[in-house]
């Protein structure tokens, strides 16, 4: 697991860094990664394609917040997401994204349930489920991303959510949680 220290033990999670995301299946992640790299460039340190459910922190202890995330995952059911076409948050935020045609309601419900406990979402924007394709690039590249991805379509089955911790300079998977089940190693 990323973030393992030299002693072989994971560093303690930081209470001010807790994220919950939906990871893309490998083939779709590779395809989306190629597209994202074509917009931002190979040297831009592209974050793997994902759908953020929470970007936040623990209200009190990280362990208590993590247990809440586990409980939400155990009580949730797998669902389908359909990615169809593009949208943008411009001028509020310089983001071009893929729309969630199907599955947005389930993402909103998971977001709401995750925040109904010791987890806090720290972004200044209202939650809108999406998959970022281009972020904070020049206007021409943002327009190109929006146009080139407009016809994009894909479906994926969401069977788990990832619980992440920001440690040692980057987000690291703490555990993958099966929807309706137990944590995966």
UniProtKB/TrEMBL annotation:
Keywords, ordered alphabetically: Ligase
One MF term in the entry's GO annotations: ligase activity
Keyword Ligase among UniProt keywords: yes
Pfam families the record matches: 2_5_RNA_ligase2
Record's protein name: 2'-5' RNA ligase
Source taxonomy: Bacteria, Bacillati, Actinomycetota, Actinomycetes, Micrococcales
């Amino acid at each position: 697991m990323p973030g393992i220290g030299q002693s072989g033990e994971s560093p303690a999670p930081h209470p001010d860094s807790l994220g919950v995301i939906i990871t893309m299946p490998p083939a779709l992640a590779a395809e989306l990664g190629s597209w994202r790299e074509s917009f931002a460039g190979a040297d831009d340190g592209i974050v793997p394609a994902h759908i953020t459910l929470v970007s936040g922190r623990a209200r009190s202890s990280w362990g208590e917040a993590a247990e809440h995330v586990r409980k939400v995952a155990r009580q949730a059911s797998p669902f389908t997401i359909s990615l169809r076409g593009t949208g943008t948050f411009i001028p509020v935020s310089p983001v071009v994204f893929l729309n969630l045609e199907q599955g947005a309601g389930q993402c909103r419900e998971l977001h709401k349930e995750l925040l109904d406990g010791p987890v806090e979402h720290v972004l200044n924007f209202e939650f809108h489920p999406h998959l970022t394709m281009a972020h904070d690039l020049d206007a021409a590249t943002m327009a190109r991303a929006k146009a080139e991805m407009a016809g994009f379509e894909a479906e994926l089955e969401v069977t788990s959510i990832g619980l992440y911790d920001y440690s040692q300079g980057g987000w690291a998977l703490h555990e993958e949680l099966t929807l309706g089940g137990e944590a995966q190693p």
